[in-house]
Amino acid sequence: MSESRVPTFGPEELRAVQLSRMRSSLRSAYESVPHYRAAFDAAGVTPDDLRSLDDLARFPFTTKADLRENYPFGMFAVPRERVNRIHASSGTTGRPTVVGYTKADLDTWAELMARSIEAAGGRAGDIVHVAYGYGLFTGGLGAHYGAERLGCTVVPVSGGMTERQVQLITDFRPRIFMGTPSYFLAILDEMAAEGIDPRSTSLEIGIFGAEPWTEQMRVEVESRTNIRAVDIYGLSEVMGPGVSQEASTTQDGLHIWEDHFYPEVVDPFTDEVLPDGEEGELVLTSLTKEAMPVCRYRTRDLTRLLPGTAYPPFRRMAKVTGRSDDMMSVRGVNVFPSQIEEQILRIDALTPHYLCVLTRPGRMDELTIRVERRVDVDHVTAAEAGRLLESRIKHTVGVTVKAEVLHPHDLERSMGKAKRIDDQRHLRDQ
Q1: How far apart are alpha carbons 24 and 106 in whole angstroms?
Q2: Based on the number of CB atoms within 10 Å of its own CB, is 76 exposed (0-12), middle (13-18) or buried (19 or more)?
Q3: Contact 288, 108 (CB under 8 A)
Q4: pTM score, two decimals?
Q5: What are phi and psi of 429, to 5 degrees?
Q6: What is the pLDDT of residues 110-156, one digit of tens each?
Q7: 426 vs 361, 403, 423, CA distance in Å?
């Protein structure tokens, strides 16, 4: 068996590597990026003030707004001519966030993705079906070059054309699927419509990311297939997919590749750094990026840090439970889509296809859960399932909702990240 791509560090050795790389990264940001020089000066710190890893807490956060304010290339720490590739967010809520990569950055990214796929159970020679979107989104190309680096055969399908996805899975017989879990469920639905048993396919590993998903979603996927479902995490502002990866041997959270990314968890309201084990907002500092180093980037993803298991001393991050900016406040109760999904997947008559609709018909907010019933469920059973869902959400989440159980395929399918919230409260004021 070939040697693992995951490096072996002792705890002290890893901390020494992190401190050395962090000092270099902060110095590059301070000396080459006007935004960081101004931000560090305003906070009264310089890279020389980083004498231990704990000193990072003295440095300012970076937010998505900072990236947008420096659109398009203001956050680059190298001349634009040294940037080999550019990725960007969709920009649906404002200017896109632009990220750049040098040749060395792309090499690092490919290696970390190869490391991640290997940790998920992939090996050289596997056929990998990539259903993440290609283009400016980092998912498709990140998975693609990582799989190639590992020595796999890549099928670059991208998202969409679900019938063709099924055909290629059937004909090419890939061992690994990479895409969003919500889109994979749409593919499974298409297989069922075509009379194909998902258990009869060649798929053995599903590497799912780009959206939060629950343990109940894992059970749903694994019960319908012969797949071992594992989580992958990343974000374009920090690199793309491959920041952390769940090991197929343990399936107990995602190991953060801490030789390249330093994690913190902070209280999203007080900004206080929290001890390992407490839930809060994940903050990441890049340690090896050349084109666009980031200092304390606020991901808005909610998680907690745990000791390493499959790959110590790399710490794990628990499955992302939601985003601080996706939190719904309904009559004073904070609600995350993941809490709703957890209850939906506990009811056999319902599918994981759902949408949380927020309205304000009077003075009070109302939350309606639109969810599809399974194909073999009749109207009476569906109505009972809706009432059960309302009851379970009331007792577990603490908010009153209305459940609207729909026919199969009534909800629009997403080819990428699933849309879970439709906030219509502003429409009443227009």
Answers
A1: 19
A2: buried
A3: yes
A4: 0.84
A5: -90, 0
A6: 999 999 999 999 999 999 999 999 999 999 999 999 999 999 999 99
A7: 11, 21, 7
